[in-house]
Amino acid sequence: MRVLTAAIAIAAGFLILAGYFFPVFAPVQTLLLNWAIILAGAAALVGVLNLITVHWDKIRRREKSSGYSALLILGIMVAVLVFGIVRQPAIMHAMMNGIIIPAEAALMGLLIISLLYAAIRLLRRRADVMSIVFLITAALLILGSATLPFGNIPVLGTLIRPWVSGVLALGGARGILIGVALGALTTGLRVLFGADRPYGGN
Amino acid sequence: MADAIKCPVCGENNPKEFEFCQYCQSRLQPLTGPLKGADAPIKPGSAPTKKTTADLEQVLPQWLRDARSSARDASEGDLPQTPQSKTSPRPPAPTPPRPSAPQDLLAGLRSQAEDEDEETPDWLANITGGTPGSKKSTDDSSDVRWVELGGAKDSANEADTPSWLQGLAPLEPQSAQQQDGLTDWMHDSDAAQQPAAESPDWLRQTPADDNDKSFTNSADTFTPADSSDTPDWLRQMQAADSATQNNAAPAADNAPDWLNSLDSQSNAAPITSDKPDWLRSLDVADSGSQNNDNLFGSAAPAASDTPDWLKSLGSPDNAAPAQSSDTPDWLGALDSADSSSQNNDALFGGAATPSASDTPDWLKSLGSQDNAVPAQSSDTPDWLGSLDSADSSSQNNDALFGSPATPSASDTPDWLKSLESTDSSSQNNDALFGSAATPFAADTPDWLKSLGSADSGVQSNAVPSASETPDWLQGLGSETPSAPVSALTSPADDDWLKGMQSGGSQSAQSDPLSEADMPSWLSDSSAPASPTPEIESDDAALGDVPDWLKAAAPQSSIYDDLPLAQQPAAPVESSDAPDWLNAFKSLDPAPPVQSQSSSTFDSDSSLGGSSDALFTDMPDWLSGSVENPAPSPASEPPAEGEIEASQLPSWVQAMRPVDTGVEQISASSSEQKQLEARGALAGLQGVLPAAPGYAPTSKPKTYSLKLQATDEQLSQAALLERILAAEASPVPIASFSTLRSSRVLRWSLAFVFFAVVFAILFLRTQIFSLPVGVPFEIDGALKAVQSIPDGAPVLVAFDYEPARVGEMEAAAAPMFDQMALRPPRFTFISTNANSSILAERFMITGPMADHYKNGLQYLNLGYLPGGQMGIRAFVQNPRAATPFDVTFTRAWDSTQLKDVNSFSNFAAFIIITDSADSARAWIEQTTFERGSMPVVVISSAQSAPMIQPYYDSGQIRGLVSGLYGGAIFEQNNAGRPGTARIYWDAYSIGMLIAALLIVGGGLWNLFLGSRDRAAATREVK
Amino acid sequence: MNISLDLISGALSFLFTLLIFSYAIGDNPLFRIGVYIFVGVSAGYIASVAFWQVLYPKLIYPLMNGSLIMFVPLLLAVLILMKVSPRLAGLGSIAMAFMVGVGAAVTIAGAVSGTLIPQVMGTINGFDINIAAARGVGLIEMIFNGAFILAGTIFSLSYFHFGARPHADGSMHRLGFIEIMAWVGRIFIGITLGAIFAGLYAAALTAFIERINSLINFIGSFL
Q1: Could you give the C-alpha distances from B866 to A126, B555, B902, B904, C50, in angstroms and in order?
Q2: Which CATH class is domain B776-985?
Q3: Which of B253-262, B666-675, B928-937 has the lowest mean pLDDT?
Q4: What is the distance in angstroms between the Cα of B703 and the nearest Cα belonging to chain A?
Q5: Cβ-based contacts under 8 A for chains A and B
Q6: pLDDT tens for residues B5-50?
Q7: Directed axis angle between helix C92-110 and helix B868-876, to 10°?
Q8: B638: left (phi > 0), else alpha (psi -120 to 50), else beta?
Q9: For chains A and C, what is the number of CB pairs under 8 angstroms?
Q10: Which residues contact C123 (CB under 8 A, 6 or more apart)?
Q11: Strand, helix or coil at B90?
């Protein structure tokens, strides 16, 4: 099994790579990519099924939070009913606008409290250069993003903020992006050469 | 005397067939003399110490002695009766003995002995009869035979024989054939023995056949060449020894008159006034036990002139049987040893008389050398080594025998040579023996030569060292050949004598054929094993044997295995012992050296049955007694401070099982042909040992508990210990008090923001101005959007979470408003499952609802799973990747995509995303296909810093991020107020409050943190 | 109907917003109820989308139309569905291997062609006068900004350089100049993270404003 999975991963990977450089392999690449799309959709189903299984077990075991699990299962059933069976756009939009967007946006909104709380107390726990630079940069950019009734905050909003975000932060972000690209390249090569087998099968 | 027997009690005449007087019921047929005296109770733990009645005779009143002698004379005529009794069915039960029976002092004990058959206590039964010795079949490579079991040839004759007597039977026919081979003096002795009139009473009961047969085996084969140089008296000893082993013959011609006379004396009147008492008893016992064996007769006279220790050498082999309880321990032990050995060796089997306890060490070792085999240490003087080698070679074939013995013979005293030759004859045929004995004749004193020759072939290994061996000792050494056994295993010097005994036993074991030569009483005591018809016939003659003695007979078999185990023994010897002692050690049964033993046995097997028969003449009790020393500690070199074996009681020595057991098992494991000696499986070959795991061939090594480590290792270990200790020891660290979550701060922050934002939004204030200025990225986006032709297909990727709806819609709405002025054909696609419906929301119920109602068209391709894989699939072949839209309509047949066949056919590509990764994925995967297509990214403020590099690198035309970007773009959207404006006051106030809180709160907490760290540092210090 | 749905949608939106905002005073059952329902509905929605927008049009429909080649992804999909069962999860590794292999190849190609080379080229182009002129940037400003971008890129990359050599005392340290560059890189990264934090806060604040605005709008609809 271990050899089989490794062989599949390596073969598929090299065929996809060949499709980038050799037009002959483009149809193969397309075919394999479409299969991968299908499998990704199936994987999404697997995730949902696993979620159902976990919470169903909690309900069956009558655990402490089994009531919430029941609500979760209920939410799944309702959503499947609305989005999978009824499939009425108005109802789907209503559910999206009434439950998903408000809940998620509210969670995002609450983040400002947590972010501010963390930023305020950061230097109490860790007062090193990076933390200080981090907070200063954050403060400058936040402050530079705001405006006053009469316009941008002088210097800060017109010079410092654009320069920090467009030069200093750009340099750091580029370094990070290149680093990420190098990491992705290395990881991908390790997978293609069988050194890493994150797909299991051991 | 031929017609009637006069009852010794009532004086009435009885027909000679009658065993008991018809008038007074007194016994007419004499019991086996020596056995009669064995009624003495055996002490617990002691080997059945058989005594010769002769020992007790001296304590008898004169009148009784006279009566006994007269009775013997009178009973001589009974000898012809024995054959009859042999063929007759076994008598039901021996008549109760008459204490006054004149034939023998202990004759009256017969019935008592019978009664004791059942009354024998367990401890005695265990000691005596429980363990018939294992023996090797005649075809065994080792050629060792156990008298008790007998060979296949014996079985027929042993049918009626008591089990413990079986081994004796087969010897008879052969001995008869070889009768002619006897030398004159042997003939004389035969003649003296055969006539019943000349035989003592106890001897008369021995069947005549036995007498004839007893000498048949090797009388013609044994012709020691050295006999000419051997002192007469020793030669006679040798001859006697050989005679008992059927190889005997030679020296009779040279026997001095005094010896011949002694022979006759021993037959006629076993008790010689010149002899010491103990020797006298031995003589009597010998003559009686072996019946026709002039050996004993001849040995007896020699004993009178020889030192006591030598006398002791001579007697016990033949010696006899039952000993009275008065017998000293050492004598008893010897006897028992002899009896178990079943050796015919006249000299050394019998010579074992002195027990280890009273004999000097060197003598004991000499005894042990009987069994001894080859092994010699380098420290062993040559002359002593020859003794060893002689022993070992005793089981070798002719070639071995003749040649190797040669050198050793040069220095061997004659008397010792005779011993050797005697022993050798016991296991080898004539040809062998002659050659083996010859060399000894050269320089060896005659008396020693005789010893040496008596000890069978042996000498093969003795060769090298024999030259230095004192003559007299060489003979002793070579004497043991027949018994490779126990003496070798016990290097202990103090057991030499036992070794000798066991050696004798060995020779007896190797020749069951000669059992027939044994007198009936001896046969009784020697063969407890399987009852055969012949045994029954013998039993008729042996009916007088006390039951306790019958039971005692197998006792010798307790150590039956010993010879086997000891045969292999050999070479190892302690080099610490003095030379003269090593010599004896070498003769002792050495710890197991199987290779030698096997070879020895092989050679023995080649000798044929005749040599086997030599040793089967030895009764069980005698072989057993000879074997007793085998297990003796002689096999172990005595450690300092250890109690010398010589000080142990004989029965303890006899029962020392350690070495013997080890060797025994090892021998059995190495030689599958060994017969099971005891238990229900007795007589079977290849029986697994009772104790399976117990087959140690050597003492377990002792390992020191102290750790063996070098200094370097110790230092490293100490270093490791210190490291571990340092790890384990608590180290105070500068820790801060746990930062407890400040609920007040959280609530304060929440309250402030809720209040401020709610108030501003509720009031719908527009106090704060929108941001001024257009950054490059926004300007690029604006220009890109403005450059999109009317009705051109525009691909829009909606990749944001519902949580960012407000921000993303606020950022994207101005751009779409801008585009709606010249409506393109929008095609939406999402790599986020939630975004597909968010795109619908954006167009239907969101900022673009008015445009949608006004006919703004779009095509939603829906969810494209797989991340970069899906993007790549779509970019490479959009039709194949997304054939249908969200309504499950063929997307590429719609008017929105009517002229779009590939990704590059889109006029612009707009990415609305809150994730830098999503933007990066789209940017990366469209690199090859997008060409000059303008790509604009509308991103969340969060992901903008990570998307900025792509704008800087020119991969995207513009970037609009967050509410800030939307507000700027909105200002360039023909001034139509949008969402950004609604949110902007709250946004600006929220940003200002946040900046102030971060700066103020950060500085305050920096101060608090510095104080805490300083306090913690002080605590640590 | 629409009105009713809008009302229901608004009410649900109002309710769930309050449920979630209740977390501002701490964890409470209302917040949990809102979260569990939200998670359930999202999962159900995703499952529906996965089926109707992926599996059905891309797998089931072609199979129903006789595309035999689609049995391969069907088999792989079945195998990956076995991941649900702990006993059969091992079989799913085959499909996972296929996905990992394809994903690795796509990532390699995208990283090299879409990020690595373009970003390196972008760093170099920061000193391109023509590009600077096109953007209306002066030479000094261009060089100044380009130098910082270059320094930020290199130092940030140095920060991710974890190669080290053992010292005499057994400790592992980076080379001296790399250590210095990494320290400078930390500053650049700190600045970048600060910018991200500011953008995150701005996004969160926008979401918060949007939610408060929705609440006000819902309340205002009844006024």
Answers
A1: 40, 94, 19, 21, 11
A2: alpha beta
A3: B253-262
A4: 45
A5: 199
A6: 777 777 778 877 777 777 777 777 665 544 444 444 444 444 445 5
A7: 70
A8: beta
A9: 453
A10: A174, B953, C146, C149, C150, C153
A11: coil
- Candidates B719, B761, B842: best to mutate against C (most CBs of C within 10 A) is B761
Distance CA B737, CA A124 (A): 11
Q: Distance between CA B690 and CA B674 in Å, rounded?
A: 14
pLDDT per residue over C166-191, tens digit each? 777 777 777 888 888 888 999 999 99
Name every residue whose Cβ is closer than 8 Å to that of residue C161 and which is 6 or more positions away in sequence.
C174, C178, C182
CB C207 within 8 A of CB A108: yes
Q: Does A177 touch chain B (CB under 8 A)?
A: yes
Q: Where along chain B do its domains lie?
A: 4-128, 171-639+648-670, 776-985
The predicted-structure confidence for B787-829, as pLDDT tens digits, reads as follows 888 888 999 999 999 999 999 999 998 888 888 888 888 999 9
Question: Two tokens at B102?
Answer: 């004149």
B825 vs A125, B162, B796, B880, B907, CA distance in Å?
Answer: 54, 124, 10, 20, 9
ipTM comes to 0.95
- Which residue of chain A has the CA closest to C88? A201
The distance in angstroms from the start CA to the end CA of chain B is: 125
The verdict on B1021 touching C (C-beta cutoff 8 Å) is no
Domain count, chain C: 1
Question: Which chains sit next to B, with 3 or more Cβ pairs under 8 A?
Answer: A, C
Nearest CA of chain B to the CA of C68: how many Å? 16
Q: Give the tokens for residue B208.
A: 């005549």
Q: Which residues contact B201 (CB under 8 A, 6 or more apart)?
A: B30, B33, B68, B71, B72, B74, B75, B76, B78, B102, B103, B104, B107
Q: Is residue C46 part of a domain?
A: no
Residue C182 lies inside a defined structural domain of this protein: yes
C-alpha distance across the termini of chain A, in Å: 7
Closest chain A residue by Cα to residue C211: A106
Kind of pairing, strands B908-913 and B935-939? parallel
Which pair of tokens denotes residue B141?
A: 């490579």
Long-range (24+ apart) CB contacts under 8 A made by A24-33 are A26/B876, A29/B876, A30/B873, A30/B876, A30/B877, A30/B880, A30/B881, A31/C69, A32/C98, A32/C102, A33/B866, A33/B869, A33/B870, A33/B872, A33/B873, A33/B876, A33/B881, A33/C102, A33/C106
Q: Are C189 and A175 within 8 A, CB to CB?
A: yes
Q: Has residue C113 been placed in a domain?
A: no
Helix (H, G, I), strand (E, B) or coil at A142: helix
Judged by CB atoms closer than 8 Å, whether chains meet at C97 and A133 is answered as: no
Residue B819: HSE in the Cβ half-sphere, 13 Å Cα cutoff: 34
**Boundaries of domain holding C194:** 126-223
How far B668 CA lies from chain A's nearest CA (Å)?
53
Question: What letter represents residue B441's amino acid?
Answer: A
